[in-house]
Each structure stands twice: as C-alpha cells, then as structure tokens.
C-alpha cells in the first residue's frame, strides 16, 4: 500500500505547511527499532487483564508509549481471535500523560469501530455461506495464513480511515 499524505487544512496551499504521512514502515532506523520494541513488549510482555484500559511505559531513549490491545474474532486464527495493538508514541512524556483521556477516547472509538466492522463482515460471510466448516478448515491447513484488517473488516478504505483517525488524534493532542 502506498503512503497516505494529508495536509493541515489551514496551511494546505502553503508548501511548507504541516501535514501527516502514514506509511508501512518508519524511514528512520531508530524509530523502527523503538516501534519494534514497543510492539514486542505490548503484545508479549506487558499485558493487562482488562483490555478496556490502556497501558503506559517508556524511557528517554526509545520514547513513551500509551497503548491498547484489542482482539478480533477470526475463526481461522489460533484460538479463534487475532490480537492487535494501537500505540500512541511520543519522545516527550509530558505530551502523553496530560493527554491520557483524549488518547484513550480516540483508541476506544477506533477499536469499537473496527470490531463492529469485523462482526458485520462475519455476519455477511455467514449469510453468504462462506464460513462452511470442512476438514481442511477444521485442521487449519488452508486458512492458517495472516490476514490484514482490510480482509477482516471487508473494508478497502480501513487504512484511510485509520490515517484520518490518527491525524485527528495528533491534532487534538498538540
């Protein structure tokens, strides 16, 4: 998927105006390393028994992170669900902590939206008969491959929505 670029509406006609870029991977090696560290820690080490509450951790070297883990139902996944994580990362701890409530509200809204879309897509598959269980499905030979949010939500514009959501969050926490 190509990069998604948006400009601040106030400075859209000014070439030097602020804007946002969403891409698959960070261009800076340091940012990529800290992002990998945050994701590994969030999805494997630092867990919260109540997924409706965010967790915070970080340091001066890697930055600071407020994140929420959420699960999506997927019959072809191990355990019947897939785990995802939304991260809000900043180099400045004072930018994250005072905005805790705003970040949590945005994350909750996005998670609810994604889970609703997945439920709707699963119902549509059931109605169309796409969820027929057979020996291959039961043994997980065919369907044990990774799936994107685009596939699970049946929404080709999910990443554009995510970009728009992230831009609004960043604008509200500046």
TrEMBL record:
InterPro entries: FLCN/SMCR8_DENN, Folliculin, Folliculin/SMCR8_longin. Signal peptide: none annotated. PROSITE patterns: DENN_FLCN_SMCR8. Residues 1-174 form the UDENN FLCN/SMCR8-type domain. One of its GO terms (cellular component) is cytosol. One of its GO terms (molecular function) is GTPase activator activity. This is Protein required for amino acid permease transport from the Golgi to the cell surface. GO terms for biological process: positive regulation of TORC1 signaling.
């Amino acid at each position: 998927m190509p990069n998604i670029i948006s400009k601040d509406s106030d400075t859209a006609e000014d070439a030097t105006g602020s804007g946002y870029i969403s891409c698959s991977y960070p261009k800076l090696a340091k940012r990529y390393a800290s992002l990998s560290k945050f994701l590994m820690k969030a999805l494997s080490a630092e867990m919260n028994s109540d997924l409706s509450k965010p967790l915070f951790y970080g340091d001066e070297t890697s930055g600071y992170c407020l994140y929420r883990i959420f699960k999506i139902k997927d019959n072809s996944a191990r355990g019947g669900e897939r785990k995802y994580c939304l991260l809000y990362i900043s180099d400045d701890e004072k930018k994250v902590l005072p905005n805790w409530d705003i970040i949590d509200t945005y994350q909750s809204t996005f998670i609810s939206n994604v889970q609703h879309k997945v439920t709707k897509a699963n119902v549509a598959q059931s109605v169309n008969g796409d969820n027929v269980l057979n020996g291959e499905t039961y043994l997980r030979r065919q369907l044990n491959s990774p799936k994107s949010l685009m596939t699970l939500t049946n929404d080709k514009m999910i990443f554009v929505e995510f970009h728009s959501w992230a831009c609004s969050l960043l604008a509200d926490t500046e």
